[in-house]
Amino acid sequence: TPRPAASAPHIVITAGPTREPLDPVRYLSNHSSGKMGFALAAAAALEGANVTLISGPVELPTPKGVTRIDVESAEQMHAETQRLAPRAALFIGCAAVADYRAAAPAEHKLKKQETGDTLTLTLVKNPDIIASVAALPAEQRPLVVGFAAETQDIERYARDKLQRKGLDMIVANDVSLAGLGFGSDQNAAWLLWRTPQGVESRSEAPQPKTQLAGTIIRQALALLATQTAEK
Ligand code: PMT
């Protein structure tokens, strides 16, 4: 494995789902497998970067040359991100973070109620991890690349999310197509990034996540190089 040079950029990547506890034996989560985020970490290490991967619970081996930090909940992912992102050159949020968590996870296993057929859970909003990185003061703020999981009007919603979350680049994947997105080995995406002239974009046809990851990393590093040159 080539060791990153001392001047290699530090890249922090989040991957996988988060798990939001309801009680000691139950949780809310989603179908993210971590494959896209782990492929990004592997591709970034191959480009010679110094890579830290903050991962939710997944069943994947750590890519060669990558430092991995395991977390479960969105709040834990947020805390690790806040610790590491201010020292990074590039932050990529590929994790499928739960937007909500239980307001008060039960200390003991929830019992089935004797009466009534419904159970009401109260959820509260989780922190928006990537928006908090994008909002860091200029001298601490890495280049910020987000993902968008969309089921319709992919490019329009991605443009909107790029602006609203204050990102530098966004990778929008269509998660409505069978065999792409969550859990699969293949993905297709729109890449959109900001330039002084406006937003540029390119579309990537269905391909292995490992291959798409290389394209995303090279595009992000090129953007980083132009921003560094402008400073
Ligand atoms: O893991 P795989 O099985 O390989 O699947 C890959 C993927 C489909 C999960 C991945 O490619 C992807 O799209 N990840 C983002 C999924 C998502 O949560 O999208 P979103 O549109 O809800 O969120 C937009 C962005 O905000 C994302 O960068 C997300 O990481 C970030 N976010 C969202 C909520 C939150 N509380 N904090 C965040 O940082």
Automatic annotation (TrEMBL):
It comes from the Bacteria. CTP binds at G93, C94, A95, D99, K109, P127, D128, I129, I130, F147, K161, K165. Residues 10-220 form the DNA/pantothenate metabolism flavoprotein C-terminal domain. It catalyses: (R)-4'-phosphopantothenate + L-cysteine + CTP = N-[(R)-4-phosphopantothenoyl]-L-cysteine + CMP + diphosphate + H(+); N-[(R)-4-phosphopantothenoyl]-L-cysteine + H(+) = (R)-4'-phosphopantetheine + CO2. Keywords: Decarboxylase, Flavoprotein, FMN, Ligase, Lyase, Magnesium, Metal-binding, Multifunctional enzyme. The keyword Magnesium applies. Pathway: Cofactor biosynthesis; coenzyme A biosynthesis; CoA from (R)-pantothenate: step 2/5; Cofactor biosynthesis; coenzyme A biosynthesis; CoA from (R)-pantothenate: step 3/5. The keyword Cell wall biogenesis/degradation does not apply. Residues 11-231 are annotated as: Phosphopantothenate--cysteine ligase. Its EC number is 4.1.1.36, 6.3.2.5. Binds 1 FMN per subunit. GO terms for molecular function: phosphopantothenate--cysteine ligase activity; phosphopantothenoylcysteine decarboxylase activity. Its cofactor is Mg(2+); FMN. Catalyzes two steps in the biosynthesis of coenzyme A. In the first step cysteine is conjugated to 4'-phosphopantothenate to form 4-phosphopantothenoylcysteine, in the latter compound is decarboxylated to form 4'-phosphopantotheine. In the C-terminal section; belongs to the PPC synthetase family. In the N-terminal section; belongs to the HFCD (homo-oligomeric flavin containing Cys decarboxylase) superfamily. This is Coenzyme A biosynthesis bifunctional protein CoaBC. The chain holds residues 199 to 429 of 439 of the full protein.
